[in-house]
Amino acid sequence: MENNIFNNYREWVSEQKMPKGERAVLLAGLALFAQQGYNGTSTAQIAQQAAVSQATIFKYFKTKQDLLLAIIQPILENLYPRYRDDFLPELDQYKTLAEIVHFIIQNRYQFLKENAEAFTIVLTELLTNPTVRTLFFKVVQESQPMITQHLLRALKKVGVRQELDLVAIERTIISQLLTYFIQQRLVPQVPVDEQHDLQLIEAQIIRAIKK
C-alpha cells in the first residue's frame, strides 16, 4: 500500500491500489474491531462482513494480529501526521484564548468524528497491545517539537497560567475532548446537543488554563 498522508481512513483505503478482497477485509476489520473490539471479533465474522472466505483473509494477512496492524499502522504513520501538519500551524493566526480553544475543540472533534472507527480501535488497543503502544508513542515523540513550537507558543501568547507546562495543558484539552468522544461511541443512542456540549467543554478548558 502507498504510504501517503490522508484525512480520512476509509477514503484512503478505497483509493489504494490493492485487490478487491484485500480492501474488503480491511474495511470489514475496521468496522468490526471498532464495534466489537479486537478480541470480540473472529475472522469468521470478518469474512462474512467482507463477503470473502477466511482463506482470503489469510491470503493477505497471515494472522488476525497482522490485519489489526495493517489497519492501525497507516492511521498512526499517515493520519496523525496530517492532524499535526495541517492543524498546528493554524493556531498561530488566533489572538485570544477563547479563539484558540474554540478552534482546537471544534476542529479536532470533527476530525475525530470523521475517523471515529479508526480512533476507536487505536484508543482501545493502546490499553492492551504493546506493539500499538510502541507505534503510537513513536509518532507522538516525533511530533513534540512541532507541538511545542505552535501550541505552547500560541497559548502563552494569549495568557495561560504560568505554572502549567505543555504536558499539563495537553492533558487538560485532550482529556475533555476524548472523554466526550468516547461517551458518544459508547452510548450513541442517547440524544445530545453537540454544539452546546462542545461549548461547555471549551468553557471548562478555558477556566482550567486561563491566567
UniProtKB/TrEMBL annotation:
Keywords assigned: DNA-binding
InterPro entries, alphabetized: DNA-bd_HTH_TetR-type_CS, Homeodomain-like_sf, HTH-type_Tx_Regulator, HTH_TetR
Highest taxon, organism lineage: Bacteria
Cross-referenced PROSITE patterns: HTH_TETR_1, HTH_TETR_2
Entry annotated with the keyword Lipid metabolism: no
DNA-binding region: 42-61
Keyword DNA-binding: yes
Domain HTH tetR-type intervals: 19-79
Coiled coil: none
Pfam families (alphabetical): TetR_N
Protein name per Swiss-Prot or TrEMBL: TetR/AcrR family transcriptional regulator
Species the sequence originates in: Loigolactobacillus zhaoyuanensis
